[in-house]
Amino acid sequence: MARPEHVSCPFCGERGSNQTCRTCKEQGSALDGLVSYLPYGNPIVREVIGCWKYDGDRSVEPTLQYWIEQSKDRLRPPLENFIVTHVPIHSSRKRMRGFDQAEALSTWLGELFEMPVEPLLIRSRKTKPQAKVHHEKRRVGTLDGIFEIHPRVTELPSCVLLCDDVFTSGATMDAAAKCLKETGVEEVWGFVIAKGSHES
């Protein structure tokens, strides 16, 4: 059985709160905090997510949905005024996989927690998955500008819950949060099933 991870700053690992700590904020992190439930280093978690994300195995979806439901107590701040959106993959990668895993998660999240869901972002540039990028080369601005506001969006919400399947270096989600904040969103929290170690 996969054990829940400890609550900490999503970027540096400082324990005590799932809010982004003051130091990381001062260093330019746009994400206000991260809700995550399981450690990505757990082999069971990694295998289930990998089977779903890369192999298209839909039989693991009930397990993923259960993990999402168990994370409800970690939702901070209160999210009554939040819109759920997702970190989109590039259109070419979506065609290859047949679906966007983060988009599916946003739909489940909206249904489970009765929150409105809206696609707010598009990915304008294809990048190498951050899990395959060496730790020292992550989060150094290489992902700036890879997201744009979806052309069908006419008005942005003030608060967004931004979801993805996994948080590793934080570079991708932080780039998405930065795009949202630069265009008027005031508060952006992340939501993922699993988070990797900040040292991985």
UniProtKB/TrEMBL annotation:
<dbReference type="InterPro" id="IPR051910">
    <property type="entry name" value="ComF/GntX_DNA_util-trans"/>
</dbReference>
<dbReference type="InterPro" id="IPR000836">
    <property type="entry name" value="PRTase_dom"/>
</dbReference>
<dbReference type="InterPro" id="IPR029057">
    <property type="entry name" value="PRTase-like"/>
</dbReference>
<protein>
    <recommendedName>
        <fullName>Phosphoribosyltransferase domain-containing protein</fullName>
    </recommendedName>
</protein>
<comment type="similarity">
    <text>Belongs to the ComF/GntX family.</text>
</comment>
